[in-house]
């Protein structure tokens, strides 16, 4: 793919992301996207055969963008920085979620109830977070900064907390998300026993 096609592809995805977030999947047409891009509808169809194909590709890109490894890199965690790094990486992820992201994920969640492929992908993301948190927590155990107990339960809890915060943010619910994350991480480090 030459540079112009790649740039056009990326610009199409960025513009579609914004328009889908602002107007929803149903109300955003390929004509509207083409007009916003300043290209013809056939030019848009050259890159994406249908609006559904565009929605699919956009979701794949969003999923890559929120992959666990983008926010938490186990190799960067040491005995001396584990707690602070865990807090900072989680806060970075929370801060990554802009209003467009929250709006569009609401639509993908709704779509997941009608289209099993979206639900499967959403579940895969959550499973990736649980696995990633389990590996990170085990790394903390190996470093001697976390207690050797309930690693999988704690990983599942972290995934639920992250997913819950994501959902609450998408509803516009005002919470002290940063403080919730800090308290959660500090309780893990202290080794509060999970019943």
- Structural Rg: 20 Å
Helix content: over 70%
CATH topology of the largest domain: Tetracycline Repressor, domain 2
SSE string, helix = H, strand = E? Answer: HHHHHHHHHH
Cα shape: elongated
Q: Output the number of helix runs.
A: 10
Residue windows where pLDDT falls under 50 for at least 5 positions: none
Cα end-to-end separation: 54 Å
Keywords:
195 residues, mainly alpha, Arc Repressor Mutant, subunit A, Tetracycline Repressor, domain 2, 78% helix, elongated
Describe what this molecule looks like in 3D.
- With 195 residues, the chain is mostly helical.
- It has 2 domains: 1-60, Orthogonal Bundle (Arc Repressor Mutant, subunit A), CATH 1.10.10; 66-195, Tetracycline Repressor, domain 2, CATH 1.10.357.
- The mean pLDDT is 89.
- The protein has 10 helices and no strands.
- The protein is 78% helix and 0% strand.
Q: Could you provide a short overview of the structure?
A:
With 195 residues, this protein is mostly helical. The protein has ten helices and no strands.
Secondary-structure blueprint of this entry?
Elements: H1 3-27, H2 30-37, H3 41-47, H4 51-65, H5 68-71, H6 82-96, H7 99-114, H8 116-143, H9 151-170, H10 177-190
Helix pairs in contact: 1-2, 1-4, 1-7, 2-3, 6-10, 7-8, 7-9, 8-9, 9-10
